[in-house]
Amino acid sequence: MTPLKPRNKTPENRTIDWISLGFSAPxxxxxxxxxxxxxxxxxxxxxxxxxxxxxxVFSIIDVAAYTVPWVLPVSSxxxxxxxxxxxxxxxxxxxxxxxxxPPADVLIGFTIYFVALWTFAEDIPYSxxxxxxxxxxxxxxxxYMFSDGFPINFADKSRLTLSLGIPMIGIMAFSYLIQLxxxxxxxxxxxxxxxxxxxxxxxxxxxxxxxxxxxxxxxxLARKLLHVDPDRADAELEAIAQLSRSSLAEVRxxxxxxxxxxxxxxxxxxxxxxxxxxxxxxxxxxxxxxxxFGVNSSLFSWVLREAVTNIVRHSQAGFCEVRLNNTxxxxxxxxxxxxxxxxxxxxIKGMKSRVESAGGTLIIEDAPARWLRAHPAGSGAVDIRxxxxxxxxxxxxxxxxxxxxxxx
Length: 408
Fold this sequence. Notes:
With about 400 residues, the protein is α+β, with helices and mostly antiparallel strands. Among the domains are: about 20-150; about 260-408, 2-Layer Sandwich (Heat Shock Protein 90). It has 14 helices and six strands.
């Protein structure tokens, strides 16, 4: 019998949750209202000091439960939440010992804190949290309603029930809206991933379908010409090798879309794709690429990925250069320029739409003549116009001065 292997758990993020601190701390103001009704008017000073200490301990435990829940060495999130609940009950029971009001009244006053703790607890399924919050509210309400025995005085108890019940319902409703938003985000992310995978599948199918068909035809032709015209057969074999390298570069460029890399990773992926296609490249170094962050990193990664894919597929270029600064990206090649069918297609339109939606400017044009003279195409090349793809996030579309290169 094969022994069960322990499941690998994601390491817990043991940092202070400042957002939860900002959420939980303002609620502690309500403790002043609770304090005001706990003791008789002429209670001695020591009772006031005692109650204040209990409320201070309660506040510390409540804030800690939100901001540093990991301080309790319990592996199960559910058991940990139960333990935090038990710890919160300790100062509440301490208040009950000397309060001038019945213990049930004290309990119902603190119930909203327990309901909020369970409602907004992280790392526990939402349904479990809500059931726990409802159970706490229901038990507290039942104890409060029946604490004076029968008959129940609904007139006296309804006011406190409503004043505390409405905020509790509001807390649960608010948490439900948050959960709906999270579910919508998860659903949209899944749909985006499915759409992206389908697009990649189509791209890989198009690349391999065309390339393998041509390779098969050329291989058959080379086999027939091998003894009749060796020179032409050799040329066909060289074309097969070149097409294979180009197809491999296209596939590599396409499958990188399955990842969500940082810009530095995208630079490395582009270098591999260009190298496989026998296209020399001059790229920013990793340190320079790491300086791009935030929305620019995501946008520049996407534009570079699309541009390199198009260079590999359509440009017939021998050299590519990528330039970068904090607010701009520039990609140049010495190929044949943008094919008419691609210029009118959805590829460039999609690229332009994405850049503009991020607040940037996209220019796609022929490469500058001065740059083409510095980076000429092969000796047999004709009608070389090259391509310049320029993304600017600050409106400046001038050429970027290259710095920090990696030559491949």
